[in-house]
Amino acid sequence: MVFNTFIKCQVCGCITRVRLQVGGQEEHPIEVTCGKCGTSLSGKVKIGQDCPGLNFSFDNADDAQDENADYVVECSGEFPTAKQAEVADLEGLVVTPFIRYMNCMKTDDSYEEFVQAVSQLNATAKKWKNYKRILTLAKNNSEYLTQEIQKEFSGQFFQCRDESETLRAVHMIEVHGLYSALRKDILNDLSFSAGILKMDSAQMKSLIDFLNSHDGFHLEELQELIYKVYDEFIVVYQRLIPALALQYCKDNSFDFEHEGSTTSSFGSVKQFYLDVYEALGNLMIIPVALNNIKYRSDINAMNPIEKNVNSLEDYIKLTKASRYHFCLASEVYTGFLQTLVNAKLRNAIGHNDVEYNSVDQLITYIPNPKDRTKKKTEYLLQFENEAMHMFQAILGISEYLYRLRELELMYDGKIPIMVHERVKWPKKIGRNELCPCGSGKKYKRCLLYTSDAADDKA
Fold it and tell me: Half-sphere exposure of residue 320, counting CA atoms within 13 Å on the CB side?
C-alpha cells in the first residue's frame, strides 16, 4: 500500500509530497531534503500494524493541506526508493518500491529471507537492553550473570555450570540476535568455525599468547570492541535496512544514480561506517593469523603482500588500510568474511576531503590528498552497503574469536563439564537424532555438536 502526505518546509515554504510505501515495520526514520533550499527534513513515521493508522513527525517541516507540491519523493523503511525530483518528473511514476524490488530478487525465496532478517533485527533491538546487560555482566565476571542469562534463555543448554557453558550461553546472544539475521552461513555449516579447534595446537596456543601479550589485542579486549560495535549497530540499523535489501537482489539490478534511501543520510551513518572500519581493521589479525596457520603452518608466516611484513608483529604496525590488503578472497578465513572496503574513501573522510549532495545522495571525495585535482564519487547506498558488509565481516570474526576463547579455557586446564558427561552418551548418535545435551535440536544442528573437536583436545 502507498500512502501520500504533504509537508511544508519551515524555511522556504516549499511543499514536498512524500509517497510512502507502507511496510511491515512499526516505525522507521525518514530523511529527505527540501528541493528548494536544501534544508534537512528528517523525522519518523509510525505505522499501525495492529490498528491501522499512520503518524508522521518531521523536524523543519509541517503538515501541509495544499496538494500543489513542488517536489515528490518516495519513502520506504525497507526498500531503495526513487530519489527526489520535481513533481513533473515523477508524475507518471506508478510502480511502487515494493514491486520494483520484487522484480530484482535473486531467488523465489529471497524476499521471504529478507523479511525474516528484518524481523529478527527488530526483535533483537527490542531485547537489546537485556542483552547488553548480560554482555556487561560477562565482561565484569559478575555473580549475577547466570541469573540474567536464565531470564532470557531457558533449558539445559543454559545451565552455566562452568566457564565453558557460560561462555557459550553469552555467545547465544550473537547467534540468536545477529547471526540468524545477517550471517546464517555461520550456522548452516558449524563445522567451519569448529574446525578452528582442530588446528595445530601449538600454533593456536602461540596465537592466543601473542594476542594476550599485546595491548589492544587481548582476547577480552577484542571481544569488548565487538560488543561496542554491536551497540552502535542497534542504534543505526534501521537506517541501513534498504542497503541490506541489496544483498537479496541480483547483481547490477539497481540504478544508484536514480535510486537511493529515505531512511538515512551521509551524516547519520558516517560515524558507524568509520567505527566499523576501525574495529574490523584491528580484528583482521585473527583471520590473517588463522590463514597463516592453515596455509603456511606458522602464525608468523605472512603471505608476501607487503614488503617488510614478515610476522604478526610487523602486521600490527601497519596502517588499517594496509592491514586490509591481507584480506584475501583466495584464503578461507578472510575469504569467508566477504568484506567490502574502500580505504581511500575512509581516509578522505578522515582528512575532511568529502562533499555530500543530499538531493542526489552522492558522495564526492579526494582519494589522494597529494593530488587534489582528481575526485571520485560513491552513492549513499553503496557507502551503506560497504558498512553492512564490514559489520557482517565482524560477525564472522566474532565466531572465530569465540573458538579462540574456547581453546583458551582448555589451555588453562578448564575442561568443559559437557566433555565429561559425553562419556555417558550413546557411542553412536545419528545426525538427525535429538542431541542428548537437551537443547531440543537435531544433533547435526546443535552448537554442542561442534564440541567433538574439544573432546579430541581433552
Answer: 18
In the chain, the N- to C-terminal Cα span, in Å, equals 59
Please report, in tens digits, the pLDDT of each residue of the chain (458 residues total).
888 899 999 999 999 999 998 888 889 999 999 999 999 999 999 987 665 678 889 999 999 987 788 899 999 999 999 998 887 765 555 688 999 899 999 999 999 999 999 999 999 999 999 999 999 999 999 999 999 999 998 877 788 999 999 999 999 999 999 999 999 999 998 889 999 999 999 999 999 999 999 999 999 999 999 999 999 999 999 999 999 999 999 998 889 999 999 999 999 999 999 999 999 999 999 999 999 999 999 999 999 999 999 999 999 999 999 999 999 999 999 999 999 999 999 999 999 999 999 999 999 999 998 899 999 999 999 999 999 999 999 999 999 999 999 999 999 988 777 655 555 556 677 777 766 555 556 766 665 444 443 344 43
Residues 6+ apart with CB under 8 A from 262: 30, 31, 32, 73, 74, 75, 76, 81, 242
Q: Which residue has the cell 575512509?
A: 346
Give the distance, in angstroms, between the CA of residue 123 and the centroid of all CA atoms in the same chain: 15
**Backbone dihedral angles phi then psi of residue 11, each to the nearest 5 degrees:** -90, -55
Please give the angle made by the CA atoms of 317, 323 and 324, to the nearest 5 degrees. 170
Residue 160's Cβ-side half-sphere holds a number of Cα atoms within 13 Å equal to 22
Instruction: Quote the CA–CA distance of 34 and 359 in Å, as a whole number.
Output: 8
Closest CA relative to residue 328, chosen from 318, 338, 343, 317 = 338
The secondary structure element, H or E, covering residue 364 is strand 362-365
Q: In what order do the strands lie in the sheet with 362-365?
A: 354-357, 362-365, 376-379
Number of other residues whose CB lies within 10 A of the CB of residue 8: 22
Amino acid at 393: A
